[in-house]
Structure to design on (485 residues):
């Protein structure tokens, strides 16, 4: 499936090489400024597409789940603590058990260790303010490699990380159990294993929010992964101020607060993807640890020789990164690259057309695209890309789902026109489209439009049937009205 933004990428790929070069040039520029880095961080991993996806590409659904209550034996004692988890298979990656330091129920465990079920591994019992004393048992299992909050707790307490999943969502060798088995089957096997050893106390129904990939609908796996990131904190400040100061207006204005919240809490942008489509990341590796970033292979070789002090390096000693850039990394440059503004920032077309007046788009890509275009505009032009952003609602079905071919919930416009008439469809949509809000579609909307259009037509027929007398004088009020119309 190609997202809407790929339309811009197709333009970048097919119109001329300058557009493609612009994206690569921006990557190199930001890398040289210290804003792009390569590192191991927690990402949203799509095991079906086997690629990282951004936070904005994950949607959450309320789904029926289970809450498993599991005993962890205290090392050296005939006693235990109980932990509640929705994912018993991730117990294989636990490196600590945690409680709130204010929770007196667990104060006696300070400095002690507990034994992780199914593994026999001893891990420390720690304390952190993040733990909610009221949720579950008040104890939290810490799996730094597979939960963002656990990852941050792990950093604070210097805990090791055990990645128990392969990229395809099967259990890895590091888990020590269920190797090669799919994660959901491993959950069933973990339940049986815990039950057989007496570690499983009970299982209760639980409604849980599950993150799914917009790309494949697969359940997202929080996962430590080596990726490329763009530091967003500093570079996004001008774009935030532009909206807060009124240089750029969002319509309806209710989206202003949403925009501010996102921009004030912005995280580093994971810009690498493990896909075939896109701009290949301009990074080359050599030797055991060497890395160079350049606009092309020739420049990369020169830099590698300079960095390593080895003039005998050849192009065969270099290997380009296989990852590609997130499609939004090209789309965010669209107002500028449309006029070759990266390669030629003073050309007359750019000066004439940039900034433009209005952008019309959907709220769902306010951060995907709009905010990032504003960020790029101030970074590379020192100016906003547009003055007004009009955010339209989306047409959804009665279950609030987006119209989708795969769901089969999108009506055929030509069939609607046959049934209700073109004017009926147009008027029905127009009358039921609140500014900036979603429209919940069903067939009653074009039916209302048809009925309204019929009333207008009947009124017109009535008026056309009236007789007029050209000799009669006309009062001043209708004369003024006609003149005004």
């Amino acid at each position: 499936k190609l997202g809407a933004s790929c339309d811009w990428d197709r333009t970048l790929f097919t119109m001329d090489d300058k557009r493609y070069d612009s994206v690569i040039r921006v990557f190199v520029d930001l890398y040289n400024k210290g804003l792009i880095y390569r590192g191991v961080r927690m990402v949203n991993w799509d095991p079906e597409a086997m690629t990282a996806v951004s936070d904005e590409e994950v949607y959450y659904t309320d789904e029926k789940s289970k809450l498993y209550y599991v005993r962890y034996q205290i090392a050296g004692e005939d006693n235990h603590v109980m932990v509640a988890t929705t994912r018993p298979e991730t117990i294989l990656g636990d490196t600590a058990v945690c409680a709130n330091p204010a929770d007196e129920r667990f104060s006696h465990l300070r400095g002690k260790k507990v034994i992780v079920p199914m593994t026999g591994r001893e891990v420390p019992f720690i304390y952190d303010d993040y733990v909610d004393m009221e949720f579950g048992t008040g104890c939290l299992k810490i799996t730094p490699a597979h939960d963002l909050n656990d990852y941050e707790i792990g950093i604070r307490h210097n805990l090791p990380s055990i990645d128990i999943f392969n990229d395809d969502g099967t259990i890895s060798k590091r888990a020590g159990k269920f190797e090669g088995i799919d994660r959901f089957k491993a959950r069933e096997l973990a339940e049986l294993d815990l039950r057989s050893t007496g570690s499983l106390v009970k299982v209760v129904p639980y409604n849980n929010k599950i993150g799914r990939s917009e790309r494949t609908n697969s359940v997202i796996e929080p996962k430590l992964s080596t990726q490329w990131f763009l530091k967003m904190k500093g570079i996004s400040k001008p774009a935030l101020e532009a909206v807060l100061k009124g240089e750029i207006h969002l319509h309806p204005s209710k989206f202003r607060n949403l925009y501010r919240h996102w921009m004030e809490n912005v995280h580093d942008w994971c810009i690498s993807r493990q896909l075939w489509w896109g701009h290949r990341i301009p990074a080359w590796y050599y030797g055991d640890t060497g890395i160079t970033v350049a606009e092309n292979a020739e420049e990369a070789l020169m830099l590698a020789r300079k960095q390593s002090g080895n003039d005998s390096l050849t192009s065969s000693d270099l290997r380009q990164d296989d990852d590609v850039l997130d499609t939004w990394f090209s789309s965010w440059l669209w107002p500028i690259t449309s006029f070759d503004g990266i390669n030629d920032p003073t050309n007359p077309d750019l000066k004439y057309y940039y900034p433009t007046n209005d952008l019309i788009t959907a709220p769902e890509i306010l951060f995907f695209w709009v905010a990032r275009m504003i960020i790029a505009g101030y970074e590379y032009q020192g100016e906003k890309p547009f003055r007004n952003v009009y955010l339209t609602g989306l047409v959804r079905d009665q279950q609030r789902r987006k119209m989708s071919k795969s769901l089969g919930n999108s009506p055929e416009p030509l069939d609607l026109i046959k049934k209700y008439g073109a004017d009926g469809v147009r008027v029905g949509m127009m009358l039921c489209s609140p500014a900036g809000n979603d429209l919940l579609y069903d067939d009653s909307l074009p039916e209302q439009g048809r009925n309204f259009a019929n009333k207008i037509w009947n009124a017109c027929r009535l008026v056309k049937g009236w007789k007029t007398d050209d000799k009669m004088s006309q009062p001043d009020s209708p004369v003024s009205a006609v003149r005004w119309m």
About this structure: The first strand starts at residue 36 and ends at 46.
